[in-house]
Amino acid sequence: MGHARSYISFDILRRVLKDYFKYDVFYCMNITDIDDKIIRRARQNHLFERYREKQPQAAQLLEDIRAALQPFSAKVKETTDPNKRQMLERTQRTVELAAEPLEKAVQAKLPAEEISSCAEVLLEAAKDLLSDWLDSRFGSEVTDNSIFSKLPKFWEEEFHKDMAALNVLPPDVLTRVSEYVPEVVNFVQRIVDNGYGYASNGSVYFDTVKFASSEKHSYAKLVPEAVGDQKALQEGEGDLSVSAEHLSEKRSPSDFALWKASKPGEPSWPCPWGKGRPGWHIECSAMAGTLLGASMDIHGGGFDLRFPHHDNELAQSEAYFENDCWVRYFLHTGHLTIAGCKMSKSLKNFITIQDALKKHSARQLRLTFLMHSWKDTLDYSSNTMESALQYEKFMNEFFLNVKGLLRAPVDVTGQFEKWEEEEAELNKNFYDRKAAVHEALCDNVDTRAVLEEMRALVSQCNLYMAARKAARRRPNRALLESVARYLTHLLKIFGAIEEDSTLGFPVGGHGAGLDVEATVMPYLQALSEFREGVRRIAREKKVPEVLQLSDTLRDDVLPELGVRLEDHEGLPTVVKLVDRATLLTEREEKRRGEEERRRKKEEAARKKREHEAAKLAKMRIPPSKMFLSESDKYSKFDDTGLPTHDAEGKELSKGQAKKLKKLFEAQEKLHQEYLQTVQNGSVQ
Fold first, then answer.
1. What is the pTM of this model?
2. Which of 231-235, 411-415, 645-649 shows the lowest mean pLDDT across its residues?
3. Spans of biased composition, class Basic and acidic residues (predicted)?
């Protein structure tokens, strides 16, 4: 999902430039299929699968696990990053826990099937641990270049599937490093020829000092303060290229590899400096430079790629072309975080695109990104997604209402109605919102502000429709249709509507190949009108069973088919096609609401009965007996039953006596009412 943030964001930017501002956009995407991390992982996968195929005996597996845990434990102790250390400790603990059942099974000499089952569980739990250990022992023996191409090919295919599922447009051209090695070699040679690169021990490095001292160039344009940041520079060089030996090959610690001499266990290609492979930064420069030439308008990427990757790309490309403007604009997308932490494969705190799509649709994910600035950090959470779901529902209800209005029969001249003050005001608001949307898109493609303007426009339309409904007047069809089509147009530009829908979100799902709404709506409309006629006759003839059947059709049958009927007093029933899951959720919420109202009603009735019973019980008591039971408060009473002395025998004060007298008179009145009701026969 961290990758999805970048690719959906750039897809939105590309669509806005192309479809809103009408620029002719040529979109080039580079695929890095030669890289230190890819090489290591491909090697590890190969060695682990080879190990698994050998089906090691349980005793051998346990011995290897113990051997692999020793360097891994040392690695855990050396790790200073608290998040990474926690992840490594978790991995270590998982392996140790998975090893215990196998050890016990071996000691107890359990059947072979049980031992094999425990071994398989341990193998799966220890995959990363064993892969790293096997690579450290046998990695240098892997020499077949095809082993290194298998992994990136698999993940590139998965990437394209995910992009299609997210409705991300494919690039106009896609380049892979493995297919551009000759171009990379030529690119490096030109940089060396121009005096900005030098060969050293079979590798070629970029001379950052020479480049920075040139009057025509400047180094680290994007993040000048990061120059000399050895941690960032080492990350840029790659896991397999950071060692004292490699550092000694450089003229300056800030120099970076253009071409790397291949070691045993790494893919290699022939070149003037010996067998080697491309450096990371040079790959993008050579591929993009080959297709886009000496200058490009926009270069995209994640915020964390600014230094050293993009700064090094700039330097080596400008050294190749001998210019100072290889990229006119860099656009860097913000990170996607989970609970405030950056998604990271190395920390294993990431959500895959496929997992995200099991919970939410591609449109909902896209709306989430649209509701935030593409350049800011976005926290992926249930609250964030809920906001997108509510926005989608809000917009969809508006589209459904407008569709229902447009389906209502009207003659040709009736399509154009006289505008009153309300229509003129709504139309002015419409044009004001359009101007605000344009201004927001001109302001660094501020989609967050655009969606808020769209929400405000729909709110104004909803108020207008509600006022018309209250006055039993039909809203202006043409005006609301114009608003709905404009909003649909914007959502199409943003890629939130993928089908050829003329108005609102399409029904039937992406790629259905059928306009479900246009196909089924005439039949549903006929059913609705027939139902209205039946209900009218049932009310006139007083046949409640038919009315109940009509309600069952509306509340139980049609929602299962993704159809909502909305009955309005004095107005035609509105038919809406809505996602079945949404309707079933609405129905369940309605039933829960009705059950809650029924429960509250019963609770109120119970309390009322209890109150009336208590009141009746109190009314039955004659005033002369009301205080006699309170012997803990009073010790003497007069002839009428009024207390005269407290529990200690002291005579009551005038104030106390007066208060008791009032209570006595009130009870006398209540008791008299009781006697009257008994006499009338209304109370037993």
1. 0.80
2. 411-415
3. 588-615, 630-653
pLDDT at 507: 76
Select from 474, 455, 453 the least CA-distant residue to 401.
474
Whole-number percent of the chain with pLDDT over 90: 77
Question: 280-292 vs 181-193: helix axis angle to the nearest 10?
Answer: 100
Q: What is the dihedral of CA 463, 573, 555, 532, to 10 degrees?
A: 160
Looking at 245-254, 355-364, 409-418, which range is the least confident one?
Answer: 409-418
DSSP helix/strand/coil, 1? coil
Beta bridge mates, 226: none
Which residue from 509, 497, 458 is spatially nearest to 370, judged by alpha carbons?
Answer: 497
Tokens of 677: 């009701």
Distances (CA, A) of 660 to 184, 386, 602, 645, 646: 105, 61, 37, 12, 12
Residue 165 has what pLDDT? 96
User: How far from the centroid of its chain's Cα atoms is residue 26's Cα?
Assistant: 29
CATH 1.10.730 domain span(s) along the chain: 382-506
Q: Any idea which residue has 């009746």 for tokens?
A: 616
CA distance 406 to 575: 11
For the cut 90, the answer to whether the pLDDT of residue 245 exceeds it is no
Mean pLDDT across the chain: 92
Instruction: Match 């002291």 to its residue by tokens.
Output: 650
Tokens for 56?
A: 């090691």
Confidence of residue 512 (pLDDT cuts 50, 70, 90): very low
**How far apart, in whole angstroms, are the C-alpha atoms of residue 521 and residue 37?**
54
CA pseudo-torsion sign 252, 255, 259, 265? positive
Helix (H/G/I), strand (E/B), else coil: 121: helix
In the chain, DSSP finds a helix count (H) and a strand count (E) of: 23, 15
CA distance 289 to 609: 86
List helix spans (H) across 166-229: 181-193, 208-213
Q: What is the mean pLDDT of residues 365-394?
A: 95
Query: Smallest Cα–Cα separation from 284: which of 5, 29, 8?
Result: 29
Facing residues of 333 across strands?
302
Q: Rounded distance, CA 261 to CA 275, Å?
A: 6
Q: CATH class for domain 1-32+165-358?
A: alpha beta
Task: Report, as an integer, the average pLDDT of 348-376.
Answer: 93
Q: Do residues 119 and 61 make contact, with C-beta atoms less than 8 angstroms apart?
A: yes
Alpha-carbon span 507 to 564, nearest angstrom: 13
List the one residue out of 183, 314, 326, 328 whose CA is nearest residue 256: 314
C-beta neighbour count of 260 within 10 angstroms: 26
Q: Which two tokens stand for residue 503?
A: 């108005």
Compute the average pLDDT of residues 569-584.
87
What pLDDT is attached to residue 228?
A: 85
As annotated, the residues of the chain forming the CATH 3.40.50.620 domain(s) are 1-32+165-358
In this prediction, residues 12-36 reach a mean pLDDT of: 96
Position 303: which residue type? Answer: F
* Range in 215-229, 508-522, 667-681 the model is least confident about: 508-522
Query: CA angle, corner 62, sides to 59 and 67, nearest 5?
Result: 125
- Residue owning tokens 């339309």: 461
Amino acid 257 reads: A
Lowest-pLDDT choice from 111-125, 200-214, 616-630 = 616-630
Mean pLDDT in residue range 610-614? 89
- 361, 332 contact by CB (below 8 A): no
Nearest alpha-carbon partner for 250 in 197, 214, 212, 211: 197
Topology classification of domain 382-506: Isoleucyl-tRNA Synthetase; Domain 1 (1.10.730)
β-bridge partners, 197: 206
The CA–CA distances, whole Å, from 551 to 247, 534, 556, 597, 653 equal: 79, 12, 8, 19, 69
